[in-house]
Amino acid sequence: MMNLLRRNDLRRIAVLVLCLAFALAAVALADEQIDRYAEVFDPSQDAGRLTARFLQLTTRSDDKSGDATILISPDGFVMMIDAGNPSTYPDIDRALKSLGITRIDYLVASHPHVDHIGGFAQLIYNYDIGAVYTSEVEYPTSHYNNYMRAIEETQVPHIILAEGDSFMFGGHVLVEVFHPAPGIEYYQGYPENSTQFVNNLSLAMKLTYGESSFLFCGDLYTAAERDLVARHGERLKSGVVKVNHHGANTSSTKRFRDAVDPQVAVMMHDAIADLMTYRSWQRMGAQTFVTSIDGAVLVSTAGDGEYFILTQFDRNSGLLN
């Protein structure tokens, strides 16, 4: 028994030493890291291209930072999908100002969790908004109520989306909505214990420009992914995917990955939510990025099925390669 305890203690010490070594290496590498923020947010490269910038958000609260993506259409229209938790608004504001953006033509909420709509009220009060696009799901929390009040006070148009809807993002990009289906049945006691319920009502939207496409499905879990594949199958195939639920193991089923079959996969998170999920996208041949490591990620296309990628930071470690 004593020998077993000693062996276990040695293992714990070895793990702690390795963790400390990785932490010290990360600090040393951070000091040497080249920051290409100005290049990623240089708007001169956007004309005639569909460009997505997946933001690196720095959480300033106990909540995870969440998702925020700025898209520019080939003809200069602006779409923002999600806006992190409220504390990350300075990161979003900096990105928009760096791009010279004063108007967001399409402000889209994938679903009403705080790490996706936390910055909406501030955006609505501080920017010219063309319209806010959401699913029909209601979520009576303070952050949801704040941005609903902002919509009402500023009289910004509020457009409800559901499966089967489509609209144009500018004059050249088609947006198709695959999920959720119209009509939501709330259970007794909602919104208590509703995390999975609300995540599975995330908007699933595909943006298509010529032969290029981007897929955004918010925080869909595996059950909703399976349902989405059953209903839409090959229509989900896209060149670029925003990985569901920040890359957590709640999502990214093989069936869903095979249906999307992307060239590029981007996870927005404060860390690596699940290493196996990361590896699963990488193994299928997708160039896979995580904003916590790569910083902001720019993906741009001329509509020819080819994608130009620029990350804020270089990979300084082979751990994820």
Provide a descriptive summary of the structure in words.
It is a single chain. The chain has 321 residues and is α/β, with parallel strands linked by helices. The protein has two domains: 1-32; 39-311, Metallo-beta-lactamase, Chain A. It has helices spanning 2-32, 37-40, 89-98, 114-117, 120-126, 142-154, 195-199, 222-232, 254-260, 275-283, 291-294, and strands spanning 50-54, 69-72, 78-81, 103-104, 106-108, 128-129, 132-134, 158-160, 166-169, 173-179, 204-209, 212-216, 240-242, 264-267, 287-290, 297-301, 308-311. An eight-stranded mixed β-sheet has the order 8-7-5-3-2-1-16-17. Helix 5 (120-126) packs parallel to helix 6 (142-154). The model is unreliable at 1-5 and 10-31 (pLDDT under 50).
Keywords:
globular; disordered N terminus; Metallo-beta-lactamase, Chain A; 2 domains; 11 helices; 7-stranded mixed β-sheet; single chain; 8-stranded mixed β-sheet; 321 residues; alpha/beta; 17 strands
Distance between the termini: 40 Å
Structural class: alpha/beta
**CATH fold descriptor of the largest domain:** Metallo-beta-lactamase, Chain A
Low-confidence stretches: 1-5, 10-31
Q: What fraction, in percent, of the residue positions are helical?
A: 25-40%
Rounded to an integer in angstroms, the radius of gyration calculated over CA atoms is: 20 Å
